[in-house]
Write a structure and sequence with these properties.
The complex is a heterodimer of chains A (315) and B (548).
Chain A (H helix, E strand, L loop, with lengths): L26 H8 L6 E3 L24 E8 L2 E8 L10 H17 L4 E5 L9 H20 L4 E5 L8 H8 L2 E5 L9 H8 L9 H8 L1 H6 L5 E3 L3 H14 L5 H18 L5 H8 L12 H11 L8
Parallel strand pairs in A: 3-4, 4-5, 5-6, 6-7
Antiparallel strand pairs in A: 1-2, 2-3
Helix pairs in contact in A: 2-3, 3-4
Chain B lengths: L5 H14 L2 E2 L2 E2 L4 H8 L5 E4 L5 E2 L1 H8 L9 E7 L3 H8 L3 E8 L4 H9 L4 E5 L2 H8 L7 E9 L5 E2 L7 H9 L4 E9 L15 E4 L5 E2 L12 H18 L3 E4 L3 H16 L9 E3 L7 H5 L5 E3 L8 H5 L17 H10 L3 E4 L3 E2 L5 E2 L12 H4 L11 H10 L13 E5 L16 H9 L15 E4 L2 E4 L6 H10 L5 H4 L3 H9 L3 E2 L21 H7 L14
Parallel strand pairs in B: 2-11, 3-5, 3-8, 5-6, 6-7, 8-10, 10-11, 13-14, 13-16, 14-15, 16-19, 19-20
Antiparallel strand pairs in B: 1-2, 4-12, 8-9, 17-18, 20-21, 21-22
Helix pairs in contact in B: 1-2, 2-3, 3-4, 8-9, 16-18
The chains are: A alpha/beta (315), B alpha/beta (548).
Protein name (chain A): Biotin-independent malonate decarboxylase subunit beta
Pfam families (chain A): Carboxyl_trans
InterPro entries (chain A): AcCoA_carboxyl_beta, Acetyl_CoA_COase_Trfase_b_su, ClpP/crotonase-like_dom_sf, COA_CT_N, Malonate_beta
Chain lengths: 315, 548
């Protein structure tokens, strides 16, 4: 077992509003704060103006980086490849160029097989205006991601942005070696509105935000094992989480895959009958599950570690 | 022989008829409709309590269930047309005529019923105006109201959401009308008496809280950088130079941004204690950081806000609370305060025309007014001086001798040149005019009249209409802050430049504001959860505003 420890306890908290909130930061601010100062070198930066070939058809504004920032930087001097989605451009959705940049980065990681990859998710899924290209991109990214992992490259996902991690983003996150998520982060495939539209408001009331968060939010994902680390909503905390998970990321051996299969089967067995996240938390042993959403970062981490140790032998 | 007490006799008859369903004043929930059928007569003026916040929801359903062969042609005189039942009454033929003030969620359906002739419209009022008419020519014969609790004698505790109840009950009870209250529960001892029992004829225990809409909660997470820029302009360009201490805010995101910038940007400008200390305002959650930072001395409220009650109770130096400790709101009093005792109203709108008239009406919606036209108008009866009032009066009329010069209330419209769904805020002609001609109304529903507006704030800058000396100047002051809208693009650049040199138009750079500084980091709270933390966990936001 590794001796790496997660030292978020050292992070000083601003009393009220933190100035380096991950949730509030743009993709570029996150990359800048995550990496060693001045270490980031961007690939296919906005100056190259690789814009979406589709959006103009719909009279929609383009962005010179197509909402995806990819490049190379360092954490504590060690090189890492980084991809960050800009959740404020088209909800961070995957289009042709957006997806190709991430796929290319993952293929480079596979070929070099020497640097870990960090994916800073912030996405509602595939861009409807370029749905076919976007769906293809998701599939290609998942393949490239698995190939990189088989080549021994840890691929760590960080989720805590405004748009959450939905649709194809949720599938890619599920393929990662490990995930860190903050309270604000949400991980799922179908989003709340999609579920409500298809199954009715009785099934899922997308306007009940407390329900959305306790079903898809960071605390729930950490408690049911969907994410290994629960991060505070600061860039510093995500940096610590990234450092920690790069070290711990399991290689995708047959043993790992079987362990993951067993873990998921056990999860369905244990919680399959629960109607609400509160029931799951109760059956995990939380004596007052309704108080969990309001718990502070520190109190929640302590509780989560007591209820369910994060596992590092699966994925 | 002239009879002088026919109304009293009729009242006694109604009480006798209703008593068949009552034990003392108490009527079972199941008998609510039967009670209403016994008490109400065809053609009655009925006030069914409801406004933009609280709703007498049980009584609304009970009234919608009466036999229309017995009860019909009612004249509804009520603040809000908000619940579906309010309009069902007209569709079912139970009610025919309507005088009201506000209709948020039902604005589209009310328009349809007006077009279809199902509703005979008296007028759309402001709250205060409608309350005033309760005492002159629209006095209710029956009032159906909502309270938190009652005791055996029918004394009522209306609690934090007291709102319209005192104004309605006073008019009804003292002009021989019948007052029927739905209460959440009947108790032995009330926390305090808001309405004396001898003004109340019947009480129905509903067993659950009456509905309250959290209308004044704005999520700081949704505030944009453009809105922050308009907030910076307003604080530095209006609050500071006029020294506005007594004010009312509208409910939009622009004013929420101002509230959240007071403890940060306002503090940086050294304005604490000099502006925004006394308010006529609902308990806006976004004001919590300013309250906690010591900016706010006193707030009187129209109503309460869902989730704010425990916080208010813990800050009695700021809010108006009863001997029991809970908030006592009062819409009529707060509207009066907003009209006469505030030096400024600032709020967002949907459309502004070239005269400065503004409206929140679109061609197929009749949203009503609520309180904004009252807050956003100069009180011609005002006689007490104050620095902002005198200064605004002087800007408008520099030549009159000061002792004879009226002051002016600052009436500020704030928004982005392109609003929601990229609809331009500035238009050549208000949709309200189209609606008026479609419905054959004598008056177009104008929220704030142009001659009351003193300033317009957009991300392009501030237009000070007090300094305009002709209609042409006024029009170009408005075009000058209308940005890339059609109205803005039709401006005469030279004239706008002249207005800017005279300070009629002030751009961000004229005020020393760099638009790139308009950053969400200025917000004292950037999420609902931050507000909860600021409140010391006393604020309990409703589920739909939580992202945890």
């Amino acid at each position: 077992m590794s001796t790496v420890t997660l030292d978020n306890a050292k992070v000083e908290r601003q009393p009220l509003v933190s100035t380096d909130s991950w949730y509030e930061a743009s993709a570029r601010q996150r990359v800048e704060g995550l990496l060693d100062a001045n270490s980031f070198v961007e690939f296919i930066g906005p100056e190259m103006r690789e814009i979406s070939p589709h959006l103009a058809l719909f009279d929609l504004p383009e962005q010179f980086d197509d909402g995806m920032v990819v490049g190379l930087g360092r954490i504590d001097g060690a090189p890492v490849l980084v991809a960050a989605q800009e959740g404020r451009f088209m909800g961070g959705a995957f289009g042709e160029v957006h997806g190709a940049k991430l796929k290319g980065l993952l293929r480079a990681a596979r070929d070099m097989a020497s640097m870990p990859v960090l994916i800073l998710f912030d996405t509602g899924g595939v861009r409807l205006q370029e749905a076919n290209a976007g769906e293809l991109a998701i599939a290609e990214i998942m393949r490239a991601l698995m190939e990189a992992r088989f080549a021994g490259v840890p691929v760590v996902g960080l989720v805590g942005g405004r748009s959450g991690c939905y649709g194809g983003g949720g599938l890619i996150a599920g393929s990662c070696s490990a995930l860190a998520v903050s309270e604000q982060g949400r991980i799922s495939v179908s989003g709340p509105e999609v579920i409500e539209t298809n199954r009715g408001v009785e099934e899922f009331d997308s306007k009940d935000r407390a329900l959305v968060w306790r079903t898809m939010g960071g605390k729930h994902r950490r408690l049911i094992g969907g994410a290994e680390v629960f991060a505070d909503d600061t860039i510093e905390s995500f940096r610590n989480a990234a450092r920690y998970l790069i070290e711990l990321a399991p290689a995708p051996t047959l043993d790992t895959l079987e362990a993951e299969q067993a873990r998921l089967a056990q999860r369905i067995h244990d919680f399959g009958d629960c109607a609400d996240a509160l029931d799951i938390w109760r059956s995990l042993g939380a004596s007052e599950p309704e108080t969990i959403p309001a718990l502070s970062y520190e109190a929640f981490v302590a509780l989560a570690d007591r209820l369910q140790e994060p596992r590092h032998d699966a994925r | 022989m002239t009879v002088w007490n026919s109304a009293q006799r009729l009242r006694d008859e109604r009480i006798r008829a209703g008593a068949a369903y009552a034990q003392g004043k108490r009527v079972a929930k199941a008998d609510a409709t039967a009670l209403l059928e016994a008490v109400i007569r065809p053609g009655d003026r009925v006030c069914l309590e409801g406004d933009n916040q609280k709703q007498a929801d049980l009584l609304a359903s009970a009234l919608a269930a009466v036999d229309k062969n017995r009860i019909h042609d009612l004249h509804m005189v009520q603040s809000g047309v908000v619940l579906p039942e309010h309009l069902d009454l007209f569709e079912l033929g139970i009610a025919r005529r309507l005088d009201y003030a506000y209709s948020g969620p039902q604005s589209q359906r009310i328009a349809k019923l007006l077009f279809g002739g199902k509703i005979e419209l008296g007028a759309v009022h402001t709250y205060l105006e409608l309350f005033a008419r309760y005492y002159v020519d629209l006095t209710p014969q029956v009032a159906l109201i909502a309270a938190v609790s009652a005791d055996r004698e029918g004394n009522l505790y209306t609690g934090p959401n007291t709102e319209d109840t005192p104004a309605i009950v006073e008019a009804t009870a003292f002009k021989d009308g019948i007052v029927i209250a739905q209460v959440n529960e009947i108790v032995d001892k009330l926390p305090r008496v808001d309405i004396p029992g001898d003004w109340v004829n019947f009480v129905i225990e509903s067993g659950k809280p009456f509905y309250v809409e959290p209308l004044f909660t704005r999520d700081p997470g949704a505030i944009t950088e453009t809105q922050i820029l308009t907030a910076m302009l307003a604080i530095k360009g209006i609050y500071a130079p006029y020294g506005v201490q007594r004010l009312n805010h509208g409910i939009g995101f622009n004013t929420a941004a101002i509230e959240l910038l007071l403890p940060t940007y306002g503090e940086r400008l050294g304005l604490k204690g000099k502006v925004a200390s006394h308010w006529a305002l609902n308990p806006h959650p976004t004001l919590i950081p300013a309250i906690e930072s010591g900016w706010v001395q006193q707030i009187h409220s129209f109503g309460s806000e869902v989730g704010m009650d425990a916080y208010i109770q813990a800050r009695p130096d700021v809010f108006f609370t009863g001997p029991d400790g809970s908030l006592r709101s009062n819409r009529a009093m707060s509207q009066t305060a907003g009209l006469y005792a505030c030096d400024m109203f600032i709020g967002s709108t949907l459309q502004i025309d070239l005269h400065g008239n503004s409206s929140t009406v679109t061609a197929d919606r009749v949203a009503g007014f609520g309180g904004a036209p009252n807050m956003g108008s100069d009180a011609r009866g005002r006689r007490h001086p104050s620095q902002p009032w005198l200064l605004a009066g002087k800007e408008a009329d520099p030549d009159s001798p000061a002792p004879l010069r009226r002051g002016r209330k600052l009436v500020v419209q704030i928004g982005e040149t392109f609003g929601e769904k990229n609809a331009p805020m500035f238009v050549e002609q208000l949709d309200a005019l189209k609606l008026a001609s479609k419905l054959d109304l004598e008056l177009a529903p104008v929220m704030v009249y142009g001659d009351d507006v003193t300033h317009i704030v957009t991300e392009e800058g501030i237009a000070n209409l007090l300094l305009c000396r002709s209609n042409d100047e006024r029009e170009h002051a408005i075009r000058g802050v209308a940005g890339y809208t059609d109205v803005g693009r039709a401006r005469d650049k030279k004239l706008v430049q002249q207005l800017r040199e005279r300070g009629v138009i002030r751009r961000p750079e004229d005020l020393g504001i760099d638009p790139l500084d308009a950053d969400r980091r200025w917000l004292a709270a950037r999420s609902i959860k931050d507000l909860v933390q600021w409140s010391g966990h006393l604020y309990a936001p409703p589920s739909k505003f939580r992202n945890w």
